[in-house]
Amino acid sequence: MITISIITVFPQLHESFISLSLLGKAQEKGLLKINLIRFSDFVAPKERIDQQLCGPGAGMILKPEVVEKALNYCITTYGNGFKIFFSPQGIVITQPVVKLLAEKLFSTESTLSCPTGSTLRQAESELGIGLQSSLEAKQDLHIMLVCPRYEGMDARVEQKYADAVISIGDYVLMGGDLPAQVLLEALLRYVPGVVGNTESVEADSFTGPLLDHPAYTLPATWHEQEIPAIVRSGNHEAIAQWRQEQACKKTILQRFDWFRAAQPSKELCNEASKTIPPHYVILMHDQVKLPDGTTGTSSVTSIDIHDTARSCATYGIENFFLVTPLVDQLSIVETFLSFWHSERGKKYNPSRFKAVSRVRTEISLARALASIEAETGKKPIIITTSAKTMSHATTIDYHSQETIWVQKRPVVFIFGTAQGLADEVVNQSDYLLLPITGMTDYNHLSVRSAMAIILDRWLGLQPKLPKNLIQ
Ligand SMILES: C[S@@+](CC[C@H](N)C(=O)[O-])C[C@H]1O[C@@H](n2cnc3c(N)ncnc32)[C@H](O)[C@@H]1O
After folding, report:
1. Ligand 1: which residue has its CA nearest to atom 15?
2. Kind of pairing between the strands at 221-222 and 225-226
3. What is the pLDDT of residue 108?
4. Do 448 and 383 fall into the same domain?
5. How do residues 371-386 score in pLDDT, each as one tens digit?
6. Which residues contact 305 (CB under 8 A, 6 or more apart)?
7. Is 265 helix (H, G, I), strand (E, B) or coil?
8. Which residues lie with the beta carbon below 6 Å from any ligand 1 atom?
9. Three-state DSSP class for 159?
10. Into how many domains does the chain fold?
11. Atom 25 of ligand 1, residue of closest alpha carbon
């Protein structure tokens, strides 16, 4: 039996929440017992439960002794347990965080795999998390949810009592009651018997790298929209594959941030790359700003070719175009490339061959763009890059992949050598990417470094491990 004590200013807020639907049924089945505890029951009649913030500033804070008395009452009555506080400053709950918390609270042996692909116990040691001794007797679990209101909790109470401090998102509510309900809705889905179909819990959005697939019910035609024929085909294998493709498409075009953070497998990455439009990189040795303020050409360097080719291969760039109108420079580059494009180059260093075989040369930007259009059959979206912002350009940030990718056109990043791209190049682009900046005044990255950073921010996987939940 799991006992849950919700300690609150307003128990009425929780009455229908706990008595209806799956929580009501779980209590009827004897799986759960939910108690509502009122802070005001721990002060004398007419005494306030809150008082003024100490120091300058407005706001009322719950008295620490009131919270302590309420907690002690719960402990004495229902046994010690796991104390969860709510604060916008706490660990933001996501499905992996909920799952890890559920593992800690509800299972003695880890059976679910955590997002790292390891078991919970491995994850615990990886993350340096230890199980609370009070939780080892799982059969009599007591969870206390402390829901402040007003300006919140005296910082010392949280420090002394909280086993975990949870936020439900980066916004501020008037109290911890809705956060407590949100957490319960998420957490109790992992208690066997609370949700009818536990299979669906493991297949839902955010349990892995993908969002759930689109779901339908009858009628087959609704407002002139049909259920896709395959869904009604009866072919389970084909339906499963279709669902996986749809889920993958939807995730890439709506929540690439989630996908890239959730450690997708190689197979999923291959599937995802069918939705991500082809990307190209152009490195300009023409139409660049020179130190004297004019626009002109710059010299090609072989290290740029090697390093950019390797970055482009890492992030799946179709082709890297090196643009120079200077015939003698072009001929040096082509001699160099002919080695790397040859069988001898392949034998000499196969991985370098793989990278450098994506490199192409062109004598102008217009010709490079025309080849991309000819190969893909679509006008590319042009994204220029600069170390400075420019007020006349449409600026995008590093989180705008979905906006670009839904347009279903090839994407070209243009980089400048020398002092950067001439204004005429930026002016003909669709977007200018925000400059890369550190927290210092120094702003002179090499084009190779800038390119690697930009490709990683735009296309790289960014694995995120759940944070240590326990205080
Ligand atoms: C008005 S808020 C206090 C905000 C606090 N002064 C701050 O800026 O961090 C009052 C209470 O509502 C709850 N609360 C508000 N937003 C929340 C969120 N995003 N997640 C969890 N709890 C939240 C917390 O319990 C908080 O103590």
Report:
1. 173
2. antiparallel
3. 61
4. yes
5. 999 999 999 999 999 9
6. 322, 333, 336, 337, 356, 359
7. coil
8. 86-89, 148-149, 151-153, 167-169, 171-176, 179
9. helix
10. 3
11. 176
